[in-house]
Amino acid sequence: MNDYLYYNLGRAYHLNYQFDKAIENYEKALDYVEGFGYEHDFEQEILRQIEMAQNAKELTKKEVKASVINMGEKVNSEYPDYKPVISADESVLIFTSRKPGSTGNEKDITGRYYEDIYVTRRDEFGNWTDPVNISDKINTDLDEASVGLSPDGNQLFIYKGKKKGGDIYVSKFNGKEWSEPQMLSSNINTKRWETDACLSADGKKIFFASNRKGGYGERDIYVSEKISENEWSEPKNLGPVINTPFDEISPFLRADGKVLYFCSKGHNSMGGFDIFMSEFKDGTWSTPVNIGHPINTTSDDVHFNVIASGRRGYYASARKEGYGEHDIYLVDFEGEEVPVLLVRGIVYTNGKPYAKGVSLKVVDPNNHKSIKTVYQPAEDGKYLMILPPASSYDMIVEAEGFTPQLVSLKMPKLDSFHEIYQQIDLVSIDGKGQEIVVSELYKPAEELNNPSIAENAKKIDTEYEKILAENIESEFEQTHPESLNDPHLEKSVERLLNMTEPVAASLPVNEHGQAKEVYDEVDDVTYVYDKTNPEKGLVEYEVDGKPVKVIPENYQESEALAATEELAETAEEKETSGTSSSSETGTSTTSSERAEEEKTAVFTMMVHFGFDKWTLDEKSKNKVEVIVSTFQRHPNAKIEVVGHTDSKGPESYNMRLSKLRAQAVADYLVSKGVPRNKIVTYGKGESEPIAPNNNPDGSDNPEGRAKNRRTEIKIIE
Questions:
Q1: pLDDT in tens, 284-315
Q2: Per-residue pLDDT tens for 282-291?
Q3: What distance in Å separates the CA atoms of residue 62 and residue 514, rounded to the nearest whole number?
Q4: Smallest Cα–Cα separation from 447: which of 266, 288, 656, 282?
Q5: φ, ψ for residue 657 (rounded to 5)?
Q6: Do residues 606 and 120 touch, judged by C-beta distance below 8 A?
Q7: What is the arithmetic mean of pLDDT over 87-94?
């Protein structure tokens, strides 16, 4: 038995990072095996352990730049907690646990509680809520495990075991509850063992692990393409570059589709399962690279996911400092980013979230092929999509009872992660028809030439004023705004003239005092649509070879940006004559405005934000509405909105984030009737904390950070 004694002693040294002693004892065990002619499999196992110990020696010489953080006792327990899956925007974390209180509260034949799935969500301060049993429809008195999550967090892939294998199921979240899990098609599931699924960002591919016949070893990783809603193509093995004679599990495709993460006992693992990455180049996967220590350890490191930005990842690891057998850990990659665009938002009608019959199609304008078949918001109206950077897109917004709307999006060229929040409002107009208004498209102000223009150009870009008229018989009339006497159209021009004073002063006007040249730059026609005949004047737009009739938008992004640049140049000239633009504000201020700011604040309110967030939740909106009602009693006052962040992340990023937080409040104030020229916004970044971001001993102070993630709103008179 000396062979097993030396082998186990070698394993103990290996797990404790004493690699030379581990190799020494493995070699002694190998001598016994070779001398007494023991089974070949055990000999191969010892040789593999020697190889992994040598790998570990090399990998621990140079640690990767990343911080590994235990998720803490709120998520982890003394029992196994593992298989974390995270939404692309990091708002939802779902994981598997064998802790007491599982459905049925029974133990399996190994003496461990059956697996159940739990969910936690970020609260308004960016903290994780207490995990709860995800749903009685999902968890049963047997094993269920979370193995994959769609980027929007609305499709959960579940592993359910059976006597001689296991299958992958999917459950869908409608904004309120999860559906009964449905087994994936027979092309995915077999009589063997299928585990660990991952959906690509566009929803067109699924990667999964299986030990079906015809593989290269134990479990291999396969990919299948979507045929229809419930059908997948015959899967393809990713081949011997990825798969080895050992186990490969837990595939995860990065948001840009260019990097595959997976876990393997093969390749140059430093012990047990390690996490590897492979790049997709020229139609093939590159040789996998171990993502390194301290992320990987000498024990099992599994179920790795990264958020859309690539800044953080989540996985399970068995470490001696953990709470239990396996704990869930957060990896902070310290500044690394994936160059993708995350677009998310909410669809509203009459001020309430709306999803009935709503679909969003994103189309490549060059070939009219859809980037994804369709995006459908959940019942809470929320949607999320991930797009590659440096591209133009057409988005077709369709909803039951509303005419399809074509929206052109021209994205800035990006070499880093970028997130946009875009609200879509479905609006009825006096019972004569409907319009779809796409608004609140956020961009960093620094992408425009002058911050004094950013907010106003954004509104020109993204508000689509479709005036429905009863008595126009032509299909579409192209009419210059100044030639119409329609008060609705006059109001559109008036809105341009009622922008903040320095911008309005810089707008070129015609002899009637109207901002004609701005309309010429952006789009010199207004489309008037005849509601009495809905088919008249619709533009036929082809998507994936099929015609769709849409109303064209009346503002084009690229032209609007050109207009913005021209306005910026004019505004810069005005700066020399008394108008200045602070680098920390999204709206320029004149010297007279600064004098206003020095006056007394008659009312102050503060709203808080989740970590890395700038959208307002219902609680924050209620607070802002108090500001609105108070402002109505002070008609001569102005409102100062100042955004702040905690100290997590680069200063430049936090400055941008603080501006977005201030702008979110300003936009909501405007939506409630506050004139925009009565609002001044600033971004202060992390420069003015009201609570310590760190404790005296240098450790993180989550409560202090939560207080600092805020926007202060003052009514100044």
A1: 999 999 999 999 999 999 999 999 999 999 99
A2: 999 999 999 9
A3: 65
A4: 656
A5: -65, -40
A6: no
A7: 95
| Radius of gyration in angstroms for the set of CA atoms belonging to the chain, rounded to a whole number | 29
- pLDDT band at 248; cut points 50, 70, 90: very high
Q: Assign residue 682 a region: left if phi > 0, alpha if psi is -120 to 50, beta otherwise? A: beta
Phi, psi angle pair for 232, to nearest 5°: -125, 150
Contact 84, 303 (CB under 8 A): yes
Measure the CA–CA gap between 380 and 377, rounded to whole angstroms: 7
**pLDDT-derived band of residue 451, with 50, 70 and 90 as boundaries?**
very low
Alpha helices in 435-590 (DSSP H): 451-462, 487-497, 501-506, 516-522, 557-575
**Which tokens go with 45?**
């196992």
- Residues 394 and 396: their CA atoms lie apart, in Å, by 7
User: Alpha-carbon distance 683 to 237, whole Å?
Assistant: 50
Going by C-beta distance under 8 Å and a sequence separation of 6 or more, which residues neighbour residue 192?
A: 165, 210, 211, 212, 213
Judge whether 263 and 278 are in contact, CB under 8 Å.
no
User: What's the token pair of residue 130?
Assistant: 């207490």
Q: Is the pTM of this model over 0.70?
A: no
Kindly state the DSSP code that residue 432 receives in the 8-state scheme: T
Count of CB atoms situated within 10 Å of the CB of 601? 14
Q: Which string of DSSP letters, residue by residue, matches 685-697?
A: TTSS-SS-SB-TT
- Ordered structural domains, the chain, with CATH: 2-59 (no CATH), 78-304 (2.115.10), 341-575 (2.60.40.1120), 582-716 (3.30.1330.60)
Instruction: Count Cβ neighbours within 10 Å for each residue of 128-150 and write b for 16 or more, e otherwise.
Output: beebeebbeebbeebbbbbbbbb
Q: Reduce the DSSP state of residue 381 to 3 states and report it.
A: coil
Residue whose pair of structure tokens reads 């077999």 in the numeric block:
190
> Residue 549 — very low, low, confident or very high, per pLDDT cuts 50/70/90?
low
Give the helix/strand (H/E) hosting 653.
helix 651-671
Give the H or E element holding residue 25: helix 19-36
Query: Could you give the 3-state DSSP secondary structure of residue 578?
Result: coil
H/E segment holding residue 36? helix 19-36
pLDDT of residue 428: 55
Tell me the pLDDT band of 23, cut-offs 50, 70 and 90.
very high
Reported as a single tens digit per residue, the pLDDT across 676-688 is 889 999 999 999 9
Distance CA 684, CA 666 (A): 15
User: 418 CB contacts (<8 Å, ≥6 apart)?
Assistant: 340, 341, 342, 389, 411, 412, 444
HSE (side-chain half, CA atoms, 13 Å) at 532: 7
94: buried, middle or exposed (CB in 10 Å: 19+, 13-18, 0-12)? buried
CA atoms of 266 and 288, how far apart (whole Å): 10
